[in-house]
Structure formats: C-alpha cells, structure tokens
Amino acid sequence: MTEAKKPLIVLLAAPETSASVLYGLYDVLLSVGAVYSDMVSGSPGDELLDIKIASADGKPFHCIGNIPVEPHMSVNNQATPDAVVICDMYTSIYDVPKGRYPREIAWLRKMHADGAMLTSVCSGSLLLAEAELLDGKEATAHWAYRDMFQRHYPKVAFRNESILCLAAEADRIVTAGGVSAWHDLAVYLIARFCGYKHAIETAKVFLISGHSEGQSPYSVMTRPMETSDAQISDCQVWIADNYALAKPVEQMVARSGLNPRTFSRRFRSVTGFAPIEYVQALRIEEAKQMLETDAQSVDDIGSSVGYEDPASFRRVFKRGVGLSPAAYRKKFQRIAQIAKPIAAG
Fold first, then answer.
1. Angle CA(129)–CA(131)–CA(132) in degrees, nearest 5?
2. Which residue in 31, 170, 190, 233 has the most C-beta neighbors within 10 A?
3. How many CB atoms lie within 10 A of CB 90?
4. Name one Pfam family in it (predicted).
5. Using CA atoms, how far apart are residues 164 and 185, in angstroms rounded to an integer?
6. What CATH number corresponds to the domain at position 207?
C-alpha cells in the first residue's frame, strides 16, 4: 500500500527573518503527529507534515542575530507546496521594500496561481502586498506597519487590530500580525491540514494559547513628524503637549490659520488620522501608560487625559484598545509582576 503524501508546507526566509519565527514554526509544524503521543504514552507517532525551508537561491545564509540557516530548496524549485509561510522580513517603518525581493515575489505569484495557499507572519505580508496579491483584500501585519500600508499599498484594507486575518481565506491567503502571531498561524495550518484534534494536541505540547484579544492591546501610536507641511508639523508638536485641553481640534485649526476643511484634509494626508482621531489616539496612548504604571483610579486617569465624562473615556478606550481600562490594567500588571523583582535587583 502506497504511503499517503504528506502536505508540504514551505517556510520562505531571508536574512531579514527572525530566527524565532523560522525555527519556531519549523519545530512546531514538524512535531505534528509525533511528539504529543510520545509525551503522553511514550510512543512517538508519525510526522504528518513535510516542512521545508526555502530562500531565493537556496544557499546557506545568516538571519537576524547572525543565526545560520541552511535552506532545503530555492524558489526555483518547481514543486507546488500545499502552503507557503512567508516568515517576517524585517524592515524599518520608513523603508518600503520596493524591488527588494524580486525572485521571491515572482515565485509567490506562481505558487498562488498553481493553487498553493499563501500565508505570512508580521512584515512577511509586505511581500504579498508587493506582489499585488493583497489588492482589494483585507490583511494584517505588525501594527507598526499601518501607516506604510495606508501610504504605499492603498488597495489593501489593513487590519491593524487582527492577529490572524482570515478575510481572504477563500482566495487562499491568510496573514498574521506581529512576530509571535506565528503561534496562531501554526495552529491554523495544523487544523487545516491535519485536523482540529492535532491542532489542540500540538498547542498543549508547546503551551500555545493564542492571542484572542487581537493586536490592539499591544499597539502603540506611531507619530512620525511631517516636515514638508510646516503648519501641520507645528500642530503635531503643539498637540503632543496639549491633548488634554478642551476643544483641541478647534485650537489646532486656529493655530494653523487654515479653514477647517482644508486643515482636516491636510492633517489626514500627513498623519493618516482625522484630527479628532489623532487627539483621541494621543489621549488613549497616555492613558495606557498611566494604567500600566500608576495607581490612580480609572476615572481620574480619564480626566487627566481630557475626558471629564468617565463613560466617554471607557467607550473610546475600549473602541481603540479592544479592552476596558480595567482589563487593560490587569493584563499589563501581570507583566509588571514578573518584571518588578528583576528591576528591584
């Protein structure tokens, strides 16, 4: 009897890839079917997935941290995998990867045309955007790339709150958020190709719990200052210290000397935010930092950042962060409890 062909999953990596993502995915996916039974009964099972590492030319290289990588194959390999995982390809939030991965992008287009599922972790989705495979679709990456997607890939509906974006699953495209979102993607791939039972068992082996609350609680507002528009730049500097004042947008408009409609248009063009959204994001960012480190009541924190109505503060906070102020404080206090003994020395 002929042995059933294992699903082939290819991990696409480059020198800009994090070793934790590449080798974490490799270890977890390779263990499916084998390790759980060994741990609970002392009898290892069969590996259910065929996992290969690929790079542009297939030659050994060093990834981030000078960690050696020996790929199994190059992108010239003609075999069509069941799925490709584009590992993170780190780039600065100012450095759009135009023209940086031509061979990888050509291969991704071909693999997708041939029927492979394409998935990505973190900045790996930039390659899918460069390949124009995300045009007209929802997708995610690390929250820090929100502005890059809005400015340079406007045809992509960027979901900065998502850990695992399945909106384009029917088109065989799934994207995952920050680097640790590879956990969620791994569980998804195991369930898809090996079944729910193996996904649960593997999660138990590696203590993978997923990020059910999404990226929003971890997101930080990125505030690159615009220098080409002096009036808007001046308002950005001013509002950074005056976000708690009453009617801050009206004060920025008056400061700029522009009419409200022109100000709003130019402000959005420069920052990616409507003026009131920008103010709210600044206020919430400050409130988050206070909740992490300050013992003040939630109502007092809301008042100090510009919300006299506690209900309004809670509503805006939860809409932006995905958690109530109290739940956010509780979540990050756990981290503080781990860090405090170390900080105390």
1. 65
2. 190
3. 21
4. DJ-1_PfpI
5. 7
6. 3.40.50.880
- Residue 344's pLDDT band (cuts 50, 70, 90): very low
User: Are 51 and 151 found together in one domain?
Assistant: yes
Supply the pLDDT for residue 160: 85
Which of 218, 241, 259 marks a domain boundary?
A: 218
Same domain for 276 and 144: no
Q: Taking CA 33 as the corner, what is the angle to CA 28 and CA 38, rounded to the nearest 5 degrees?
A: 95
- Indicate if the pLDDT at residue 123 is higher than 70: yes
For residue 90, is it within any domain?
yes
Strand, coil or helix: what is 172?
A: coil
Place of tokens 């480190």: 293
The pTM assigned to this predicted structure is 0.76
| Domain ranges, residue 283 | 230-344
- CB atoms under 10 Å from CB of 206, counted, come to 16
Examine residue 140 and state whether it is found in any structural domain, yes or no.
yes
Least confident window among 43-47, 85-89, 178-182, 221-225:
221-225
Q: Where residue 211 falls among pLDDT bands split at 50, 70, 90?
A: confident
Number of domains in the chain: 2
In a shared domain, residues 209 and 242: no
User: Which pLDDT does position 44 carry in this prediction?
Assistant: 83
Question: Rounded to whole angstroms, how far apart are CA atoms 174 and 205?
Answer: 24
Distance CA 53, CA 224 (A): 36
Asked if the model's pLDDT at residue 279 lies above 70, the reply is yes
